[in-house]
Amino acid sequence: MAAHPISSHSHNAADLAAVLTNTNTTLRNASLLSALALVQQLPAMFVEAEDQRPVLEMDGDPLAFSHLIPIVDMSLLKSSDPAVRASSVADIAAACEKFGFFQVVNHGVDESLIRRCETEAHTMFELPLDVKERVHRPPGTSFGYGANTWVNQTVMHWAESFHMQLHPKSNIREFSGKLFAESDPTKFSSTVEEYMGQIEKLARQLLELLTEGLGLEPTTFNHYVENERMMSMRFNLYPPCPQPELAIGLRAHTDPHLLTILHQDEVAGLQVHIDEKWITVKPRPDCFVVNVGDLFQVLSNTRYKSVLHRAAVNGTSKRLSLACFLNPPLSATVEAPPELITAERPQVYRPFTWGEYLSNAYKFHPAMGGERHERFFLERS
């Protein structure tokens, strides 16, 4: 295969801006997503800046870095020995303080349900583009089908995505009805709703465990996930890329959310920034990958870390991930509790609402100077 000339980043930005300013969402998505079907040449707008290109190392021991992103056996939390349970809670807290990421096994989510949800996701992505466009994601909105685009990005992600919401008001059955109008919409919607319901149960359990790990009563933050809570999921599909060494599936970012619970298939791609290195999280079918979002970093007064991560692509296999996000109501005020504010660890962030934070979250690239967080620092006299 002939090497594709690497366009300048400024040229990429100009090309991408021309596409993103197209107010016809259908044409815009078509122009971006049809490129994913190319097999020989990477379009210029997908060529990542040289210093941002990921390297996907898959050789060697697949568990070589398991010690960096701990795997927690949740069955130990049910132990009759208080010391065993306390040790597991401490392991989770330590992982969130150091890495912002951990993995869980024996999590209680039905394995067959995970497989069924993955099957439905693949079925959706395999629909013709004109059918997927029935649920297209208009500019400036969060839910529906389309390309992952950020306000300030200068390169296109090599991926397509579908974002749905279960709470506070589900749009899953509406989307399913449009996508599968010619078949059986309930098969998709019932599977997705059941899956998200089990993930939400797991997320609430983890929320209490992480809260306990801070030395607080486990229910301290439960009011954030009661009435009008927000629970959403994004399917991400990363097709084989003709020149994966030049592209990015999802650029480096932190999640603005409270908690993210991710299931990735057997194809590697998730990378986490640890100790100034990018570490590939080796897929394990029995694991969920859990990471702290910006909101939990705020609630913990920075004890827990919201850490940069990204998605790499490869040239041979498509990759699917299912990412679920737990969040408070838009009107909820986010503020660290007084127990976590001390002379040694003064309050870092001012109080703000989740809606206020969300409206700013994707306007500032978190890998470019931390503007997202800095806008909410507490002003000191």
From TrEMBL:
InterPro entries: DIOX_N (IPR026992), IPNS-like_FE2OG_OXY (IPR044861), IPNS-like_sf (IPR027443), Iron_ascorbate_oxido_reductase (IPR050231), Oxoglu/Fe-dep_dioxygenase_dom (IPR005123). It comes from the Eukaryota. It comes from Physcomitrium patens. The keyword Oxidoreductase applies. Coiled coil: none annotated. GO terms for biological process: gibberellin metabolic process. Keywords: Iron, Metal-binding, Oxidoreductase. Belongs to the iron/ascorbate-dependent oxidoreductase family. GO terms for molecular function: 2-oxoglutarate-dependent dioxygenase activity; metal ion binding. Its cofactor is L-ascorbate. Residues 229-328 form the Fe2OG dioxygenase domain. It catalyses: gibberellin A12 + 2 2-oxoglutarate + 3 O2 + H(+) = gibberellin A9 + 2 succinate + 3 CO2 + 2 H2O. This is Gibberellin 20-oxidase-like protein.
